[in-house]
Amino acid sequence: MRKVVVVVGCGLGGLSATIAATSRGANVTLIEKTERMGGNSAKATSGINGWGSPAQLAAGVSDDTADLFADDTQRSGTGGVSREDLVRVLSEESREAIEWLTGLGVPLTTLSQLGGHSRKRTHRAPDKADGSPTPIGFTIMQTLEQHVRGALADRVTVVTSTEARELLREDGHVVGVAVRDASGVDSEIRGDAVVLCTGGFSNDHTSSSLLAEFAPELLSRPTTNGAFATGDGVKMARRIGASLVDMDKIQLHPTGLVNPKDPSSATKFLGPEALRGSGGVLLNSAGQRFVDELGLRSAVTAAIHAQGDEYAGSGGCLFAHCVLNEAAAELFGRGMLGFYWKRIGLFRKAETVSELADLIGAPEATVRATLEAYAAAAESGRCPLTGKTVFPVVLGTEGPYYVAAVTPVIHYTMGGCEMTADGALIDGATRVPIPGLFGAGEVTGGLHGANRLGGNSLLECVVFGRRAGASAADSQLTDRG
Ligand SMILES: Cc1cc2nc3c(=O)[nH]c(=O)nc-3n(C[C@H](O)[C@H](O)[C@H](O)COP(=O)(O)OP(=O)(O)OC[C@H]3O[C@@H](n4cnc5c(N)ncnc54)[C@H](O)[C@@H]3O)c2cc1C
């Protein structure tokens, strides 16, 4: 008889674990609390890291190594737990992860270099024929879902709209989960092992939440994460004694996009790093610049907070205006800007300085002086106000402009369940793996330290999801006790 592995959560960690468990001969019961698969994995836009891939070689990057990628990951994580054994596995198996996704049908042929990387190694799919971006997280999740529901249909039972609420344990071994379906009916789903892939807790906003417990200062802050990101797996594992690590290490992103039609929404669209990387400038409500837009995320976030500008009706969000001109829009990508501007209405267009000033409610003379000073700084190569020395474009008094309101948001929770390099979750008291319990993805911690490097989360899901799924399939009920 085949073993049954119960996988909780249908993001990239969960589907990677599922596919790996079936390839080791197990059947899988896959549980998802929302109506559909995807999780935050489906929202990813920048891509997935890997060194030594065919795409990297084709792009002429031939000097990247396991050590360089591991060093970048650990340097970015300074100040938190970024375990060497986990980082090494992540780096050494990154090429295989890219090839695995490519083999399943995800085109990962376009490369970019994100902040904190010493080489170009973040993979995504090429833009569509009309120039609009191919949403990489969505594409990966759609491809994997088709595989699970197609080729693996007779091996994987998918149970959606069903929330896992407790881990079931017998003789010390985890043997399944107690669940509640959408109509409130409780039942048990049993198996030989459980893999938790429930994601992080960036949207756990109640007064008894993990945010309240570990980062109370962030409790009222919006997030880029979906409503499902409530740390359920961390809570369930902790209740049976799992060790947690770095729970207070939470990554903020300075540019969540405020939707003028729904400013108080707890979930915000992510304003990609490329907005500022393409030359977008930040203005306060008085129409002045106040920070080097290309500074660290933490510095930009602090500077936005220091302005004290509250977005009306947002429930207290401090914000700034992000302004692009035509040259910045071109660099950012017309297709991408069109998505944020025309499709979801997060940008507005101002033809002239006067319209721009009206739009942000600042005196025209101040806005004009700000833009003149910025253009002069760009020409001279140094901004005397902010020390900025890199100017992707010259942005001056010539319109049109594209303007969005941006606010710092919770983006990623580095902390989670402590695990072995094979994805087994560790008991806090005995310091050994809890029999039958595995995990992968954002539910786990100890890899990214205090600051996750962009592109490493999708990679972590594939590398450790596959490891955890294989370990769960291989684990023996005779290991009990
Ligand atoms: C806007 C955005 C952009 C990003 N861009 C990138 C990027 O470009 N590159 C990168 O590497 N990372 C990126 N990240 C981070 C990355 O997408 C996520 O951290 C990662 O995909 C998490 O994967 P996961 O499988 O652990 O969790 P998720 O993908 O969030 O999946 C967890 C699933 O578990 C389900 N679930 C939760 N609790 C339960 C329960 N009790 N019972 C049943 N099901 C449950 C959820 O509904 C969800 O479907 C981005 C994140 C966001 C929000």
From TrEMBL:
NCBIfam families in alphabetical order: flavo_cyto_c (TIGR01813)
GO MF entry, a single one: FMN binding
Signal peptide start-end: 1-17
Family annotation (InterPro entries): FAD-dep_OxRdtase_2_FAD-bd, FAD-oxidoreductase_2, FAD/NAD-bd_sf, Flavocytochrome_c, Succ_DH/fumarate_Rdtase_cat_sf
Protein name from the UniProt record: fumarate reductase (NADH)
Record's keyword annotation contains Oxidoreductase: yes
Catalysed conversion reaction: succinate + NAD(+) = fumarate + NADH + H(+)
Cofactor requirement: FAD
Domain FAD-dependent oxidoreductase 2 FAD-binding, residue spans: 5-458
Annotated stretches, region: Disordered: 112-134
Gene3D superfamilies per UniProt: FAD/NAD(P)-binding domain, Succinate dehydrogenase/fumarate reductase flavoprotein, catalytic domain
EC number: 1.3.1.6
Species assigned in the record: Bodo saltans (Flagellated protozoan)
Main enzyme class: oxidoreductase
Alphabetic keyword roster: FAD, Flavoprotein, Oxidoreductase, Signal
